[in-house]
Amino acid sequence: MKKVAIVDTTFARVDMGRYASDRLKSCGTGFTISRRTVPGIKDLPVAVRQSFQGGADLCMVVGMPGRAEYDKVCAHEASTGLILAGVLESKPVIECFVFEGEASDGKELETLAKRRAEEHAENAYAMLFRPQDLARKAATGQRQGFADAGAVRATR
Amino acid sequence: MKKVAIVDTTFARVDMGRYASDRLKSCGTGFTISRRTVPGIKDLPVAVRQSFQGGADLCMVVGMPGRAEYDKVCAHEASTGLILAGVLESKPVIECFVFEGEASDGKELETLAKRRAEEHAENAYAMLFRPQDLARKAATGQRQGFADAGAVRATR
Amino acid sequence: MKKVAIVDTTFARVDMGRYASDRLKSCGTGFTISRRTVPGIKDLPVAVRQSFQGGADLCMVVGMPGRAEYDKVCAHEASTGLILAGVLESKPVIECFVFEGEASDGKELETLAKRRAEEHAENAYAMLFRPQDLARKAATGQRQGFADAGAVRATR
Amino acid sequence: MKKVAIVDTTFARVDMGRYASDRLKSCGTGFTISRRTVPGIKDLPVAVRQSFQGGADLCMVVGMPGRAEYDKVCAHEASTGLILAGVLESKPVIECFVFEGEASDGKELETLAKRRAEEHAENAYAMLFRPQDLARKAATGQRQGFADAGAVRATR
Amino acid sequence: MKKVAIVDTTFARVDMGRYASDRLKSCGTGFTISRRTVPGIKDLPVAVRQSFQGGADLCMVVGMPGRAEYDKVCAHEASTGLILAGVLESKPVIECFVFEGEASDGKELETLAKRRAEEHAENAYAMLFRPQDLARKAATGQRQGFADAGAVRATR
How far apart are CA E88 and CA D85, in angstroms? Predict the structure, then answer.
């Protein structure tokens, strides 16, 4: 039985943690999901390390940085810390961030965040149970939340 | 009995350490608070690690970077170090920074800093004693010091 | 028998992993290649550490950051994490990134990515088996994917 | 007997190491000072770690980055490394940097650097021997080298 | 017998490794020099850690980042990694980088790179054998490759 930890924030404005959890469950069985909420994205790295030390095999973190320049700095700090936590524990961290500025209104933001959380959840499942699915999609221009870019078709 | 360490700076211009401490005490019981002051925000990461090694279960740091571009760089360095210290110790660090440039005059700065310190203190309490409160607020657009952004209402 | 791990992403749009693998094989013998695919470049540092802990002597990672400003930030975070993973394990990581914005159309992107992956693969081989080849090319302005800059000819 | 290590650089243009050392000595007794010089600020993090491993209880580093954009990058790298060294050793590092561009001529630069070094030296002394002095100055808008900003007086 | 490791790159366009090595030898005796070449500056941090683990007492790395914005990012990543490697091993890393954009033509680039490599080599020697020489030059505005800035003469 694998253990997946999903960590979300009170700062986010769309319930990506639930979308991620629901999609994960629909992917298959063989794992349990633990949920946890921290205040903001800068609290995620410590929560990730604690989750790994508590037995998680993979952490999925969802967050929604704001529109301001400072929010981008926070996201950068959080990402750097998430990579640090993952490297120190040598276990995968699926980071799913949606920047508020990526969408032009609430509906678009909700749609984007839902879709990205679900597609990252599928990646999380594949990393644990079906690495061959990721290998099959290697270099195919996959995007999470937006339409896939696709593989390059060189105009020969 | 849990131990909370609050670390503030001589650089800050509003007594956020006191506001944080007062609010924490009003949240409940079951913890002790230690206070410590360092010169500036770049001294916080080491103070945090020392506090954890001295038995703290959670560190709350409060600081007030100035208006200059260089102050933003210092805040970035401090934040990166705080995440490092938290990840190495695997214990939560509640970072509460107010940038002087966020407010237009002293009164606004005082109000903002007080409110942010208090709301982060509530988060600190919840992280230690009431994680279910954070879970209940997941993805509800919480902000500290400003009005909450709220959850997105998709205009469907 | 040396072990080389090649890690690529589903995000990339050109199959650099295959180009790297093919070129590596054509360089010589004495090594095995393992392949693995992760979703994006920010997942590479953990995959690298896991590969080293699984016995790899060298990791080659290939990725293709997009055109947006945010993609550059992700690439920076990934690179920092790759260096961290390499330093912690004290084993070489050959990073081969092609930014989508480096090429003006699909054909150019394909050509550039193929060539860069192949030339980095040659470097990987040299690092493991023929360090003298690298020494011989010291300070000769080698470039991967573009024409070499060459050694400076001081106009004396 | 506490041990303070002061590390300065050959790059700097004002003898901040001497100013720091003189002021430290005038603050009180109960400590010894070791001095060391490295080429530039990027050499400070290793020197700090070595000093701690040699028994220092606190390191004070003084440096003077130049005016160019690149100098700011170097200062950022040095600061990040200093925080890393401090956190790994869990001992305080007092960083005293004066950017050449902070002053408009040599006289001003000398005055600023002297004063900042002296005031940081006082902080170093307080951190080791009189933490209550720092606590008393908490949130009073202390500045090193310039006039203090002071606590905010909210115009209520 | 001390051990100095010099690591250079195939990316550089001027043979700074040789200039560094020649100057080091002319400084004195009591040490051996090992040479190694990696593809680019981002490969230096791992090479440095490996050199230290192989017994080196000091590493000198020479590199030549290109003119593009991306090259500056790479240099920043490399520098951060070099500081990390030095701090983890607690041994000095002399970083000698010449940015191609620092010179206006090949002759100038060759002259600058040669001189900087030689002057950094002198620093490396001093760090190992004559720390008093560095102490004597403390705060004298030393520059490597360009004319020294000199100590500030306050116009009192």
Answer: 9
Q: Is residue D138 part of a domain?
A: no
DSSP of C71-108: HHHHHHHHHHHHHHHHHHHT--EEEEE--GGGSSSHHH
Per-residue pLDDT of C25-49, as tens digits, reads 999 999 999 999 999 999 999 999 9
- Which residues in chain A have Cβ-Cβ distances shorter than 8 Å to C116? none
Which among B17, B46, B77 has CB closest to D80? B77
Question: Mind listing the pLDDT tens digit for each residue in E22-76?
Answer: 999 999 999 999 999 999 999 999 999 999 999 999 999 999 999 999 999 999 9
Strand locations in chain D (E): 2-9, 31-38, 58-63, 93-97
For D24: left if phi > 0, alpha if psi spans -120 to 50, otherwise beta; the answer is alpha
Residue showing tokens 């975070």: C77
| C48 in Cβ contact with C86 (< 8 Å) | yes
Parts of chain B with a pLDDT under 50:
155-156
Q: Does chain B reach chain E with at least 3 CB pairs under 8 Å?
A: no
Global pTM reads: 0.97
List beta partners, residue C88. none
A139 occurs within a structural domain:
no
Q: What is the pLDDT of residue D6?
A: 98
Distance CA E11, CA E8 (A): 9
Nearest to B93 by CA among B31, B137, B47: B47
Tens-place pLDDT, residues E74-103: 999 999 999 999 999 999 999 999 999 999
CATH assignment of the domain containing A23 = 3.40.50.960
DSSP-based three-state secondary structure for C2: strand
Tokens of C73: 């930030």
Distance from CA of D145 to the nearest CA of E (A): 16
Say yes or no: D73 contacts chain E, CB-CB below 8 A.
yes
Neighbours of chain D (3+ CB pairs under 8 A): B, E
E11 contact residues in C (CB cutoff 8 A): 141-143
CA D101 to chain centre: 18
What total number of domains does chain B contain?
Answer: 1
Q: What is the mean pLDDT of residues A113-124?
A: 98
Q: Which of D79, D85, D51 is nearest to D65 (CA)?
A: D79
Chain C residues with beta carbon closer than 8 angstroms to that of A156: 107
Residue C116 has pLDDT above 70, yes or no: yes
End-to-end CA distance of chain C: 49
Q: Residues D116-148: pLDDT tens digits?
A: 999 999 999 999 999 999 999 999 999 999 999
**Cα–Cα dist D95/B78, whole Å:** 12
Note whether residue D64 is domain-resident. Answer: yes
β partners of residue D143: none
Residue B119 contacts residue B60 (beta carbons within 8 Å): no
E45: containing domain: 2-136
Rg, chain B, Cα only: 16
Beta strands in C28-87 (DSSP E): 31-38, 58-63
Residue B50, chain D, CB below 8 Å: the answer is yes
